[in-house]
Amino acid sequence: DTLCDLYETLTINQAIIYCNTRGKAEWLQEQMERRDFTVSCLHGDMDGPERNIILREFRSGSSRVLITTDLLARGIDIQQVSLVINFDLPTNRENYIHRIGRTGRFGRKGVAVNFLTYRDARYLRDIESFYHTEIVEMPRNVHEYM
C-alpha cells in the first residue's frame, strides 16, 4: 500500500524498484498490477532475449517502472530514472551504493527510498557506518527533490 501511495503522490519519470529475491519481485509485480499500475519485472530466471526485450522497453520509456533484483544493480545507465526504491534493503552493503546509483545520473536529480522493517535495522546501521553517512526518514516534501 505504501509503495502504491508513493507512486500516486510523486511525479516519476522512471523508477527502479529493487527486491532481494525473484519471488518477491514477481509477487510485487502482481500486487501492483492488481491495483492497475503498469510495471515490468526483470530477474535472473528469465532468458536473455526476454530480459533484453524488457530492458529495451524500459530504456525507451514505454515501461516506466521496473521491478528487479540485484541483476540490475550495476552497469545500467538510464537517463530518465528519477526514483530508486529499495523495497527490500540489500543485505550486502556494497550493493546499496550500486542500487541507489541508478538514479540522479547525467547531472539530473534523483531520489532513493528505502522500505524498512525492524529486522532491517542492523543492515541500515551497517550501511550508514560503512559509508559514513546518515540515512534519514523520508521528508514530507520529497517531491521537491525530484
UniProtKB/TrEMBL annotation:
Q: What is its EC number?
A: 3.6.4.13
Keyword entries, A-Z = ATP-binding, Helicase, Hydrolase, Nucleotide-binding, RNA-binding
Catalytic activity line of the entry: ATP + H2O = ADP + phosphate + H(+)
Identify the enzyme class: hydrolase
Q: What is this protein called?
A: RNA helicase
Q: Where is the Helicase C-terminal domain?
A: 2-146
Task: Please give the superkingdom of this protein's source.
Answer: Eukaryota
**Recorded GO MF terms:** ATP binding; hydrolase activity; RNA binding; RNA helicase activity
Q: One matching Pfam family, short form?
A: Helicase_C
Record's InterPro entries?
Helicase_C-like, P-loop_NTPase
The keyword Protease belongs to this UniProt entry's keyword annotation: no
